[in-house]
Structures are given as C-alpha cells and as structure tokens.
Amino acid sequence: MKKILSIMRKGIETFSMIQPGDRIAVGVSGGKDSVALLSALSRYRLFSPHPFELEAITLDMGFKGMDFSPIQKFCAQLDIPYTIQKTKIGPIVFETRHEKNPCAFCARMKRGALHNLALSRNCKKIAFGHHADDVIETFLMSLFYEGRINTFLPVTYLDRKDITLIRPFVYLKEMEILNSKAVQQLPIVANTCPIDGATKREEIKQLIQTLKHRMPDLDDKIMTAIQNKKQFRLWF
Fold first, then answer.
1. How far is 193 from 19, CA to CA, in rounded Å?
2. CATH number of the domain within which 104 lies
3. Does 206 map to a domain?
C-alpha cells in the first residue's frame, strides 16, 4: 500500500486534485480499483497537506447476485459514510431496451445518476478508481472505434452540474494494484453484469497484452505520448 499511496500522491499533487475543505465522494463499484482507491484515500487523508472529508457512494445497477454488505462493513471500519442507491439501469439496458451497444448507454445513465447521488450528499467532487491502463485503453478505444484522439482527464470540471471528477490513480498501473497484498485482502464484490469480460474495452486490453509481447514498454510509450504537450495536449 505504501507504493500505491506514493504513486497516488504524485497524481493528486501534479494535478491539484484536492483542496482544503473538499468533500469527496468515492465512486465504489465494488471492484478492486474503486475499493483500493477508497482504502488509499482513507489513509492519505491522515497525512494530506489539505484536510478533506470522504464519503463512499455506490449505484446498485439492479443486477442479480451483487451483495454490497462487505463494502458497507468496510466503510464502517474506516469510519466513512456509505450510501447505496438502488437503480434499474441494468434491467433497462438489457431487458427493456436490448441495447446493441449496452456499455455506452449504461455509462451515460450511470454517470448522471452518480453525479446526482454525490451532490445529494453535498459532495462537489467524485473520485474514480481509473488507473493508467484505463487511460491507455480509453485512448485506443477512442482512436479505433470513434476515429478521434481522446482520453479522460485526470481532473474534469462539469460546469452544468458544478461538480469535479478526479482520478487519483491516474499514474498507477493495474498490475501494481493486482500485486498489492493489501489490495488482495480488501472486500471485493463480484460483477454480475451479463457482458462482463466481453466488452470492447476487454478486446483492447487483450490487444495491448498481445502487442506487449513484442513491445514490453508499449504502455509507457503511449502514456508518454498522451502527456506530450506538443503532440496532443490531452492533459496539460
């Protein structure tokens, strides 16, 4: 966890993600990334140069078999308020609309609901567990499937909602999370989405792994390109 905290701190300080008095809602899906972020931020607030408050929020997507009680107990241990909002987003996407591109539609519905949930808890910032691999995958998905050069920003301000999205794990690699013994001991909720592991993101993830057999530093080069001010100006 020390390594995770160190890399997370770099991201927070580089992009000025946290200001004094912030109330930050951590979007907790139950997966390893979001739970690890919640754990890391709960420790970071103990030595952060800027005092801030934490809450945890979860959207129950309506998929059968997802039990968030371990997250509830974990938040109680950390003394972090936890709010779960039940939705019917999953059934709407898969049973009512039978979406051909369910991920995109689901993401749009989920974003709006999550923003509203955070604001209802008086949180003007939402922290997501997106890591460096997510940055690269989003970049390639945008390039291959949408024909544009784009990826998410470490900090995004949404003026219509007056809410800011932050991604403290932006410099952290997925394997650094997976290999952490501290993360392995965290309560993780299994994802019961019908297409989990069969998405376009998963295709890109597998493509990157295939290419890395020939170019081991591929992800580092892509991250360098994304951060290159003269080329893309995606982040700065």
1. 35
2. 3.40.50.620
3. no
Residue 209 in any domain: the answer is no
Residue numbers of the domain that contains 57:
2-193
In a domain, 173, yes or no: yes
Tell me the longest C-alpha to C-alpha distance in the chain: 49
Q: How far is CA 14 from CA 30, 68, 154, 165, 171, in A?
A: 27, 33, 10, 15, 10
- The beta strand positions in the chain, using DSSP E, are 22-27, 52-60, 82-86, 125-127, 155-158, 163-166
Domains in the chain, number: 1
pLDDT tens column, 12-52: 999 999 999 999 999 999 999 999 999 999 999 999 999 99
User: Could you count the other beta carbons within 10 Å of the beta carbon of residue 79?
Assistant: 8
CA 225 to chain CA mean position, Å = 21
Closest CA to 58 of 33, 39, 79, 86: 86
